[in-house]
Amino acid sequence: MDFCDKVVVVTGASSGIGAATAKYFARESANVVLIGRNENALNEIAAECEKAKGIKPLIIKAELSNDDEVKNIVTKTIEVFGRIDVLVNNAGYGGKAGILDGIEPYDHIMKTNVRAVYLLTSLCTPHLVKTKGNIVNVSSVAAFRPIKDLHFLPYCISKAALDQFTRCLAVELAKYGIRVNSVNPGATRTNFVLAAGLSKEKAEELYKVRDKVMPLGKVAESEDIADMIVFLASNRARSITGAIHVIDNGENLV
Ligand SMILES: NC(=O)c1ccc[n+]([C@@H]2O[C@H](COP(=O)([O-])OP(=O)(O)OC[C@H]3O[C@@H](n4cnc5c(N)ncnc54)[C@H](OP(=O)(O)O)[C@@H]3O)[C@@H](O)[C@H]2O)c1
């Protein structure tokens, strides 16, 4: 899976799944564009990426709910590299919210998890047309079913929307030779639940319980998800488009 001279944009590259994905692409000799908000974390991940093959990643700090900052991602990437081969729409977040919490959590979550993905993808697509590139979206098993012990109504809706985005876009862009796929993780050990407002203790408790209920006896690690993302972005997945790939240690079976 050689990504030599390819330009790969990864959102949410400062943490968890996005960071593991960026490092994997760097090991495959890609020019990686790291998107996130936490500058210190981005710098650390960039240093790790550079260590792999000596290729310096481009860091672009961006708040994805801000349209101008999303536009700047594409402007800067083209300025520096002149092309985009792969877009990984990974950044996203969840939060405890139900119907009685009103519309605000819905607007907030949809802005990052869906609207920003739509905007960034629309701006990247003319460049992906030129390179016959591809897109990988990071969704969730929450797209198919409610999360049992957390009430994440807007998050679940956002991921269901993202899956339909993947399918519709795959059909729309197939004529340009662009593939669009989704990876849908189940519980994965990252900062996700902390960002969603859980304490460290609660997060550990949650993972312990999840470790037991998973048929494979464990939650996933970021690297497990990165493996699939990089595979889908590679030419080895040349006949795969519009497909939703669940990685959940068998949780959906129990
Ligand atoms: N972990 C799980 O159990 C799990 C399960 C299913 C799906 N997922 C999905 O996997 C993806 C990655 O999450 P993760 O588990 O790796 O969580 P994470 O460790 O919390 O990482 C989330 C990343 O998204 C970025 N991000 C979030 N909101 C942003 C915004 N408004 N603007 C810019 N960047 C933003 C964060 O940037 P900063 O840290 O720099 O702010 C961070 O890099 C998400 O789409 C999530 O929904 C996770």
Automatic annotation (TrEMBL):
Record-linked Pfam families: adh_short_C2 (PF13561)
**Highest taxon of source:** Eukaryota
Question: Per UniProt, which keywords does this protein have?
Answer: Oxidoreductase
**Record bears the keyword Cell membrane:** no
Which is an annotated GO molecular function term of this record?
A: oxidoreductase activity
Question: Is Oxidoreductase set as a keyword in this record?
Answer: yes
Q: What Gene3D superfamilies does the database record attribute to this sequence? A: NAD(P)-binding Rossmann-like Domain
What PANTHER family does this protein's entry cite? EG:BACR7A4.14 PROTEIN-RELATED (PTHR43975:SF2), ZGC:101858 (PTHR43975)
Q: How is this protein named in the record?
A: Uncharacterized protein
Organism, as annotated:
Diatraea saccharalis (sugarcane borer)
